[in-house]
Structure formats: C-alpha cells, structure tokens
Amino acid sequence: MSTTTPDVHSHDGHGDHEHNPYHQHHFATMEQQFDTSKLGMWLFIVTEILLFGGLFVGFGLMQHQYPREFIEAHEHLKQMISGHPFPLYGAVNTIVLLVSSWTMVMGVNAAQTNQQKKTVRFLVLTILLACVFLVIKYVEYSHKFADHLLPGMFYGHQAEDLIKGTHGYATFFAFYFMMTGLHGIHVVVGIVLLSWLAIRAKRGDFTSEYYTPVDLVGLYWHVVDMIWIYLFPLYYLIS
Amino acid sequence: MSTHTEESHSHHGGPKIYTANLFALLFLTVITVAAASFNFGSANVVIALAIASVKATLVALFFMHLVWDKPVNSIIAIAGFLFLGIFMMFDFLDVSSRVKLLPNNMPNMENATPAPDSMNPLKTAPPRPLEPAPAKAEEHK
After folding, report:
1. Are A165 and A83 in contact (CB under 8 A)?
2. Using the beta-carbon criterion (under 8 Å), do A64 and B95 form an inter-chain contact?
C-alpha cells in the first residue's frame, strides 16, 4: 500500500477544517504528531550514543593497557604526504561527512520551506557524499587488508610483532574495524533512508506541514557525523 | 528564502546559520589536526576530545536544531551523554585502581617465550584447570 494520500477523511469528528492527509487521527494536531515522532527519534539517538559509547570505553581501556602498541599501530592509518605522516583518508572523510551534514540540514530546511526541487537536490547531494565516504573507506580498508592489518587472531602484519607476544596491535585493529565498520554500516543504512526520502520528495510528499521523515533521517545522519567526529581524533590522531 | 511564513512548527534556523556552522566545524577540524602534530604529552588526548566535544555540540545545537527545539529533546540528549559519562567514569576508576588487569589463569604474554602461535587462540591450549587447592592444603598438615 503506497498510496500518497492515506484516507483518513472517513473519520468523523474532525470538524470541517482543512485536514492534512498525513495527520493521524490519534494526534490532536500536526505539531503534536511531529513532536512525538521527534521525541521517539531522540530516544533512539540516545541508544546509538550508548552503543558507540560502550565501544569507545573499551577502546579507551585497551589504549590504557597497551599505550605504546596503540600509538605504533595507529601510524598505519597515516599516509606519507610530502615526507610527513598525515591521516589523509581520515581527514578527507571527516570533511566529506561534515559537508554531507550541511547538505542534509539544507535539505531539511528546503522541505520545511516547501522547496521541493531543492529538497531533492540536497538529498541526492547527501547520498553522493555518503558514497564518496564509503569509497574512501573501501580504499583505506583494502590497504589494511593487503598489509594483513586485520583484527584479533587474523592480525599478521610483522613477524616481530608476534614474537613480542603482545595483544596490543591486534587489539587496536580489532577496535578499529569494529568501530569504523559499525559506523560504515550506519552510513549504508543512511544511504538507503536518504534514497527513500529522495524518491518521496520527488513525488511531492513533503510540505512545510509534513516533513517529519526528512527531519528524523536528518537527525540520524547528524548522529553518524557526530560519531565520526569522535572516531577521527581518537583513531587517526593519537600520540 | 527567509521570507517564507513560519508554519505550525517554529524553525528559526536558516541557510546562513547552517553554512556558518559548517565553516566553524571545518575550522575546528583543521585545529584538531594541527594540535595533534604538537606534543603536549598526555594533554593531547584531552585537547582532541575537547575539540571533538565542541564540534559535536555545534552539530547538536544547530544541525540537529536543539537550540530552537522544545527543551525535552535536549534533556534526552543530555541524559544520554550524562549516563555515558557515569559509565566511563566508573570504568576508568575501576581500571586505574586495579593492580593486575588480566585474569589469574591467563598466561602473562609480556614475559612469554617467543611463540608466534600464542597470538592465535585456535592454536593455544585451553587454560589448565585449577588444582584442587583444599586437598593440597591438607597434605602440608
């Protein structure tokens, strides 16, 4: 059932005022409906914060236990730029995600102000930036795979690391792949949601009266950005 | 663009504010990268986390509309970070007050003889079962 205008007019007792087709009968007003959805989204965001928070705590504890190994291991996340190690992939991806957050919020703003074409354009831009992020992530991961910088028991970068008999390097890459991987899955989910939004926006579903899905996916997308804001310095810039 | 009438929802943000916020975030990113190239000792992590928190706050306030929203959403967001803070605080208190981090039956990897297979959980033998301690104690008597 993908009707653009769900029939809620059959319910009586709404008076004779103009009725938004997306207004569900158990909400008094559209505003109440919007606020309720938004509250639910924020509760979900808190679970996301706690999910990644747990992983950050684990990372912090392991860094506390293997400080030297973590610093040595994180050098593998850097590339040589004119003779100096610089986290090129990480830095570029940070910028890509920040700009995508901006295109997202501009898309929400366009939906709020009834600018349908602009909404679609900004949503598509956000999807493209998300894809750029994943492509860079793919290139980065392939380098790690080629060097056998793999998590846990699969770690096999240098024989001397193994002889030293420490879990530090393998632990670093276990956390690196777990956290950036989980973040990457969130980006993929974001792309799916944004594509759905772009299709609906093109169809003309969203108006200043009803743009809840754009707003909520926007919140999700900013959380993905926010997690990366913490991932970047903790993984790529530790010293 | 800004002349659009305010509808039922109050949204006071605008493209200008969002763009300014983006440039602030990009500027802070440059600062983080620059700060990491200096050696402030253990303060480096604190500086990096402080800048990241400022950036996260900017995202939450302006991109996620918390400044203009109903306060209940901010309360939920702050509660989330508050409990994450409690979680972190007690975990780090626990770890920093312990003498030994590894379980007793785990071989001490730092002093182990060179053995590459020890990295591989599939190849390492399972830990030996604990000796029947009470029986031993009686032998000495």
Report:
1. no
2. yes
